[in-house]
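In response to reviewer comment 3 from the previous cycle, which asked for concrete evidence that the modeling workflow produces usable outputs, we include below a single protein chain processed end to end. The sequence was submitted unchanged, and the resulting structure tokens are shown without manual editing.
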Amino acid sequence: MSDTAIETRPAWEWRAMGATWRLRHTGKVEIEVVGALADAIAADERRWSRFLARSEVSRLNRAPGVPLQVSTETLDLLLACDGWHEQTEGAFSVMVGGALTAYGYRESQRIRPPRTSRTPAPAPIDRALVVDDAVRRLACVPEGTALDLGGVARMWSAERAAAIVRTLSDDPAILLEVGDDMVAVRGDHLVAVGNGGDSPHAVVLRDGHALASSSWSALLWSNDDGASAHHLIEPATGAPAEPASAVVIASDAGEADALATALAVRPSLVARLTNVCAMVHTDRGERHTAAWESVAV
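The workflow returned the following structure tokens.
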């Protein structure tokens, strides 16, 4: 969300996985730590980008309906995604790649902005899970769909990156910023979070926790036929979801992103995910869970 902010501190900054990464610290994080971090994130991008022809995601997408063996790293992420898919009653789905492509999001934004000549007629997306056989590390993309790990891969990578930083640096206050999302690598951090309206919230991001935001307005475009589209697809219809924004704080960065996406796609879930620290904003106003009150300042 564009109005998420943090206090200014020294930071290392670089681009990866379609986002600007910043490692904020008190001055004790050396360049060697950032190099190790950037290398690990780049390796994850090579595995999980829909836009890289040699990635594991692209390999699976080229063979719909065929179980293929994946790396241990990819299996772990896909198993987690299958779990979040079930937890959110299908609102979170990594099978939206085909719909995104059909609506015009075919390439990285750095190469070509999303756009297509003719907006498609939407169709519901297959609710099948991705992992076919965990023991043999087999994954399968159902025919008629395509895998897109997008933001959840980015935050899954951020969680892995945070573990590297904790091992290599003893800086007492480290915050990893990934676009508008963040992970409290060490220490508690006071951050300001936009709610989709006019009044941002101040919240405390506790040591080891992650904050993820998801909003329909983060990536908007108009196709040549005049139809508007965005990147948050409602799997039940296969069309861009109704305008909504969500923020989730969780002890796992991947989970925070998956649940924020699910709530932005289907805001009514906030009434069921009562144990999640979450805030949702729609044109009808704001709702939050009881757990959100524990972090609000």
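The first helix runs from residue 31 to 48. We consider this sufficient to address the reviewer's concern, and the full set will be provided in the supplementary archive.
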